Every structure is written in C-alpha cells, then in structure tokens.
Amino acid sequence: MSSRNKVLVIALAFIGVAVAQKIFIPFETPAVSASVAVKPETLFDLNGFEITNTLLTSWIAMLVLIGLAVTATRNMKLVPTGVQNIFEMLIEAILNLAESVGGERGRKFFPVAATILLLVVVSNLLGLIPGFGPIGLISLEKGHAAPAGIVTFDIPQIFFVEEHEPGAPILLAPFVRSPSTDINFPLSLALISVVLTQIFGVQALGFFGYVGKFINVRRMGKFLGGALRGKAVVGDLMYGLLDIFVGLIELVSEIGKILSFTFRLFGNIFAGEVVLLIMSFLFLALPLIFYGLEVFVGAIQGFVFCVLTLAFMSIATTPHHSEEQH
Amino acid sequence: MENIVKLGLNPAWLLAQLANFLLLFLILRAVAFKPILNMLDTRKKKIQESLEYAEKVKRDAEAQQKEFERKLDETRRQNQAAVAAAGQVAEKEGEAILAQARAESRKLVEQAKEQIEYERRQMQAQLREEVVRLSLAASQKVLSQQIDEKAHRQLVNDFLAQTDQLGNRN
Asked: Do B45 and B52 meet the contact criterion of CB atoms below 8 Å apart?
C-alpha cells in the first residue's frame, strides 16, 4: 500500500468515526456548558479553608508517589526486581541528569529537582486520566433534577457547596483537575526552585560573593576612590555604571525566573486542557491525537522544570570571574 | 493585582501547595532518594569489587594452571626417569639371574662329570679286581699250582701295571 493510500484510508476512518459518533452518541445537553475556569473549583469547605480539586489532585499525586516510593524501597535488594528496579532506573536517570547538568554539585540539587520532576509529571498525567474530568460536583437548584445525560448522586451535607443561583449555567466541578492548571501550584514550585537557587548560591559563594553578582559596585568604588585622589578615570566610571546596570538586570531576571517558571507550566498544561475540551466537542478521533500530545507535553513540562532548576542552581553556584577577565 | 486574583492566586492555596511540596520532598528524600542513592552506590562498589575479584580469580586460575602444567611436566619427566631406571635395574637383575643360572648349571654339569669320573674309576677298579681274580683263577688252573698264590698275585699285578702304563700311553 502506498503512503498516499494509507493517508486516504486513515482520513476515511476519521470521517467514519466522526459520522458514527454523531449518529450513535448524541451529546446534546444544553444545560451543561463546557467551562473554562482559570480558578480551581472548590470542592469542600473545611472551616473556611476551601479544598479545591487541584489541591485534591496534588494530594492524590503525592500519595501515588509516596506509595510508589514505599513499594519500591520497602524490601530493597542488591539485585533489584520489579517495582524497585523500575523506580531505581527512574531515580538513576534523574540523578544522571542532575550530575550532567550540575557536575559534582548535582547530588546536592538532585533531591529537590527529582521531587519537582516526579510531582509535576505525575500530577499532569493524573489530570489526563480519562473519565476523571466528567466526574465531579455539580450544584443544582433545590427540587430541580439534573439535566438529561447526567447521572447524579447525593453526597452527605457535611461539605457545603455554594447554592446554585437560579438561571445561572450549571457547571460541573470535576474532582480531579491537573494541579498545574491552578496557578498556585506552579507558583509554589517556582518559588521553591528560585529561593533554593539563592540559598545554594549563597552557600557556594558566600553571602557577599553571591550578592555581589547583583549589586556590583566594585569598579564604581574604584572610580570614586580615584576621583577623591584627583585621578578620575572615565573608563572606570563607564564600566562601573555598566556593572551596576548588569547587576540590576540579573536581579530582575531572578524575579523573572519565578514568573517564567510559573506561567510556562501553568500556560502549557492549562492550554492543553482547553484544547482537549474543545477537541472533544469537534469529533471523536481528533481528541485522541491531542490526548497523546498532552501526555507528551505533561511529561516534557516536568522535565523542563527540573532541567531549568538544575541549570539555574548550577549557574548560581558557579563563581563568576568577570572582574578579573577585563 | 485584581487580575492575579482572577487567575486564582490565593495565599491559602499557595501555602497549601508549598506545604505539600515540602512534605513530599521530606518523605521522598527519606523513603526513596537516600536509600536508593545508597543502594546505587553500594551496588556500584559491589560491582567494581566483583569485577576486581573476578579479575583476581582469573589471574590466580591462570597462575595455578601454569603451576599445574609445570608440575605435570615435572611428574612426567620423573616418571620417565623412574621407568627408565626400573628398566635398567630389571635388565641388570635379569642378567645377574641369568649369570647365576649359568654358573649353577655349569656347576651341576661339573658335579655330574665328577660323579661319572668317580664311578668310572670305581668301575675300573672293580673291573681290575675282577680281571685279577679271573686271571688268577685261569692261571692257577693253567699252571696247577706251580707258584704260590702270593707270588702269583704279585706277578699279575705287575702285569696289570704294565698294561696300565701301556693303556695310559695310548
């Protein structure tokens, strides 16, 4: 079969699936509209602390990871088998990554980078598990039945969810939603990554050595000293100003790191969920392709977060010799 | 700021996520990272040791093989020498036995010869005696007692001595 024929067959299969879907699986529940909410939905309210679906999912991710780690290391053998073998391979791969980026300091950066990688990947994939999206809380007016096509169960009234306003669209709050689509999760990881980077930097270079990177007044001091003795060198003034400016840029870039970390993860995963939602309203086979893509993106984003953390930590702990080189 | 809140930023949730991460980090570090890194290091060391040990065992085996071959050669040579020596000894012994046997047989032959000679002498003596007696008797009859017996015997003996001399001369 030539490649052109293959393409034709695949295209026909797609159209066939789409037609079959329109005929056999009508999805026409006008009462429920697809919601694209940036804010995570609140599931329960515990004494004023709202437990969101993203928080719940990150707890599930934590449980999965801890369970995996405990299973893998409960009965450790020198010759690994089963879960231990797989988990060790994973950890070793991350360790090799950390050591290839951070060199001998890689071991120091490894625990936090590995935790970030594992948590992000697992929580991203959790949000993608089929079936979790459509299962959740839905608030209804009292005495009103759920729209056609939706199966409802009463939950105990221990948890109080806001009353449904009459006339407002009925929105489903899924139990499981990828934490990366809640800006608090990527922001917390970004804060941890950047703050730890500063701490490692100070540890490696000393407080003044590290802060000197941002407030670099050495050459300005040289110029002022020269000026006091009546020998003002214009070059020193220029370089001094330049150093101060570069230091300010470094400072801003540290803050920028927090933003770029946060919105890279948040944007990618949130956009992915939106794309999947939109695709599922187009036709059946298309979401499959995007689903595969989202699995890939979910894993890659965790990897990127981890590698960037390692790289920034590595840069922050490397002594800078810019003054000596001039 | 309002826009950030619209995005869902919430200090409580942020703190919850930070606490989550810290908790997960501590648990994973205690449960997974430390033991696994230790295990990886231990395994690395063990593998290295095993490889070194295997190398050593191989070297030892080679040395032993050489030693064994050397000993085998030596033993073979010793055996050959022993066999050769044994052969020589056997040959000598055989010769000795042979020589002894020859000597013995010669001695026997000699003895037999002596016996024969002795018997022959005895026989000769008896024969002479018989001849003397017979000739005496015959001559007595012929001479009819012309001479006494004593003289007669003397006569015959002389005669026999002469014949002996004749016989010996022949």
From this structure: no
